[in-house]
Amino acid sequence: ALPEIKHRAPRDTGGLAKSTRVLMDKHRPLPMYLKIGPTRPHRSMVEMGTNPHKIPNWRIGRGVASVGTKGRVRSAAQQNRDAQFLHSFVRRNWGITDPKEVERAAFLLARSIARKGTRAQPFVYPAFLYTRGKMESILNKAAQRLDAEIVSRG
Question: pTM surpassing 0.85?
Answer without folding.
Answer: no
